[in-house]
């Protein structure tokens, strides 16, 4: 019994240490695979992980050692499996991963947040960029434009920023406690 009291905490510490090392490895793999376009939100810069696979997870599901949890999503780089790094995002994905300049993973959606000085500019922005206006607020000075994919949303950012009356454009991101498993 006395031996078990000493051995059990030791085993727990060793398991936690091994788990933390796999967490760092998953984050490093994502950081290395972050070779896509960059975008800014406030003072933070983000870089897309073009070959990322983002999937919704159940809270009780045990995650793979090669994936990082961002809120309710599991993020994994295909490069972790194949070793090859992609340069462009998959054409039809609605969700993609990105890494912030401080190493935090986030999930990027195919929706752009547009801040404006005139609500009429949102309809022009949707028309010019090929997206669909899904939300508009005159009082809030913002709106959202949905696209078929993250790649289409990223390609539309310069077009929308060029319109008079647009203050800022950025992809909608999902942040969460990045629990790496």
Could you please describe the fold and organization of this structure?
With about 180 residues, this protein is an alpha+beta fold. Helices cover about 30% and strands about 35% of the residues. The chain has four helices and eleven strands, in the order αβββββαββαββαββ. The chain has helices at about 1-35, 80, 120-130, 150-160, and strands at about 40, 45-50, 50-55, 70, 75, 95-100, 105-115, 130-135, 140-145, 165-175, 180. Strands 1, 2, 6, 7, 8, 9 and 10 form a seven-stranded antiparallel β-sheet that branches. Strand 8 and strand 9 form a beta hairpin. It is elongated, with a radius of gyration of 20 Å.
Entry keywords:
35% strand, alpha+beta, 181 residues, 7-stranded antiparallel sheet, single chain, 4 helices, 32% helix, 4-stranded antiparallel sheet
Quick gist of this model?
The chain contains four helices and eleven strands, in the order H-E-E-E-E-E-H-E-E-H-E-E-H-E-E. 32% of the residues lie in helices and 35% in strands.
CA-to-CA gap between the ends? 32 Å
Helix proportion: 25-40%
Low-confidence stretches: 14-22
Give helix and strand order, one letter per element, not per position. Answer: HEEEEEHEEHEEHEE
Mean pLDDT, nearest integer?
A: 81
Query: What can be said about the biggest beta sheet?
Result: 7 strands, antiparallel
What structural class results from the helix and strand content? alpha+beta
CA radius of gyration: 20 Å
What fraction strand? Answer: 35-45%
Total of DSSP H or I helical runs spanning 4+ residues: 4
Please state the overall shape, judged from the principal axes of the Cα atoms. elongated
**Overall strand count:** 11
């Amino acid at each position: 019994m006395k031996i078990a009291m000493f051995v059990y905490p030791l085993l727990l510490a060793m398991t936690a240490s091994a788990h933390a090392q796999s967490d760092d490895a998953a984050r490093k793999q994502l950081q290395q695979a972050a070779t896509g376009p960059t975008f800014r939100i406030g003072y933070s810069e983000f870089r897309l992980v073009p070959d990322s696979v983002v999937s919704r997870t159940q809270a009780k599901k045990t995650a793979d050692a090669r994936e990082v949890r961002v809120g309710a999503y599991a993020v994994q780089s295909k490069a972790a499996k194949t070793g090859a790094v992609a340069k462009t995002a998959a054409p039809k994905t609605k969700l993609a991963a990105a890494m912030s300049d401080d190493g935090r993973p986030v999930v990027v959606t195919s929706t752009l947040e547009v801040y404006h000085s005139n609500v009429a500019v949102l309809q022009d922005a949707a028309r010019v960029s090929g997206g669909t206006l899904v939300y508009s607020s005159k009082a809030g000075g913002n709106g959202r434009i949905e696209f078929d994919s993250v790649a289409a949303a990223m390609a539309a950012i310069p077009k929308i920023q060029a319109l008079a009356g647009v203050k800022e454009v950025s992809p909608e991101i999902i942040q969460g406690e990045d629990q790496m498993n």
